[in-house]
Design goal:
Blueprint: E1 2-6, E2 9-23, E3 26-39, E4 45-56, E5 61-67, E6 75-76, E7 81-90, E8 94-105, E9 111-122
Antiparallel strand pairs: 1-2, 2-3, 3-7, 4-5, 4-6, 4-8, 8-9
C-alpha cells in the first residue's frame, strides 16, 4: 500500500495483478487497484476530476483524465472516507501510475489538487 497526504486529504492505494487478456491479437497484463480517499481536514470537500499518467516498462505512457471517479463526484465531510475500485491494462508486466484529483473546499470555495502517490503495477516474479 502507498499513501500520501495533500492539504489534509489522504490517498491510499492497494494494487493487485489480476491476469492476462488478449485484445486484437495482443497480450495485456491486467491490474486492479483500490483507492481510498480520506478527508483529514476540518472542511467538507468534493472530488471534481482526476488525471492519471500510466507508465509501462516499454516506455508507453497513457494519460487518462475526466470528471469524478468511476462515475461519481464524492463529497467528503471531515473524517469521512470514499473508496473505489478500478483497473488498467498494460502492455508489459511492470508499470506504474500516478496523478492527481482536483477537489473543491466548500468552506473557502477554492479548488485544489490532491496528489495521488506513484504506485507500482507488477506481475509477481517479474523481476526474478
Amino acid at each position: 500500500m502507498v499513501q500520501q497526504v495533500t492539504k489534509g486529504i489522504k490517498i491510499s492505494v492497494v494494487t493487485k495483478f489480476t491476469g492476462t487478456t488478449y485484445r486484437n491479437y495482443r497480450l495485456y497484463y491486467a491490474f486492479s487497484y483500490v483507492v481510498t480517499i480520506e478527508n483529514q481536514s476540518n472542511d467538507s470537500v468534493q472530488l471534481l476530476s482526476r488525471r492519471w499518467k500510466i507508465f509501462d516498462s516499454l516506455n508507453h505512457i497513457e494519460v487518462v483524465k475526466g470528471a469524478g471517479v468511476v462515475g461519481k463526484k464524492p463529497i467528503l465531510k471531515p473524517s469521512e472516507k470514499h473508496s473505489y475500485n478500478s483497473n488498467c491494462l498494460l502492455t508489459s508486466p511492470i508499470g506504474a501510475m500516478k496523478g492527481y484529483y482536483k477537489m473543491v473546499n466548500f468552506t473557502t470555495t477554492k479548488s485544489f489538487k490532491v496528489q495521488i502517490p506513484t504506485f507500482q503495477l507488477m506481475v509477481s516474479g517479474a523481476l526474478n
